[in-house]
Amino acid sequence: MELYDVMRSTFAAREFTADPLPDDVLGKILDHARFAPSGGNRQGWKVVVVRDQKTKDALAALSGIAAKRYAAQAANGESPWNAIDPPGVDAATIEKTVAPTRLTEPIAKAPVVLVLCVDLKVVASIDQDLKRVGVVSGASIYPFAWNILMGARHEGFGGTITTLAIAQEPKIQELLGLPKHVAVCSVMPLGRPAQSLTKLKRKPVSEFAMQERWGGPPLSWT
Ligand SMILES: Cc1cc2nc3c(=O)[nH]c(=O)nc-3n(C[C@H](O)[C@H](O)[C@H](O)COP(=O)(O)O)c2cc1C
Fold first, then answer.
1. What are the pLDDT digits (tens) for 14-46?
2. Does residue 177 sit in helix, strand or coil?
3. Whether the CB of 182 sits within 6 Å of ligand 1
4. CB within 8 A of 222, min separation 6: which ones?
């Protein structure tokens, strides 16, 4: 596929056909994805390839826990799990909220689930002393994650970066035998998409690119 077509059409695939994603295709995708950038070119990524149904079910169930709060906050008109505003829903409301199946089933049903991890011993987390949630560390792993999804798209496969299970990271570390300094970055279901989304909903450039300073005139380019 042409690069811009891949960029504009790589959607979050959550439903898959029964087709397998063979190791040779997966290996090829990872072989291209590894050219992603990372801070200092440290390449701290590790990938656990999960095909065992019991492990997939466990990862789906772990996603369901954070999905309850996600759904409860969304139903309350909030931006779920944001680190600025405390949740406007109480623990009892979250507890009785049903986790939406679209947030758990893809992990249980995909032919393969990649658990993308990063070795925090090699990541320069430049914002670690700021009084806000860290964002820089993720930049050493998510370009790699995105390369996997673009590569998968190119090969006729698809998947989704999912993160809900990470709220239960110690349990994932136990499940997969990960060392404590290895963080989980995504639980990524992959397979042959059951259908293809062709028109993705995204904001236009003028809504997020501004000139010279925050609130400056929008970049106009057309
Ligand atoms: C950092 C990140 C975390 C995400 N976490 C989840 C998740 O936990 N579960 C899920 O189903 N999708 C998750 N997504 C997928 C987004 O919902 C999806 O990329 C977005 O809605 C755009 O979908 P589209 O490309 O199909 O339009 C995540 C995406 C990103 C980039």
1. 999 999 999 999 999 999 999 999 999 999 999
2. coil
3. no
4. none
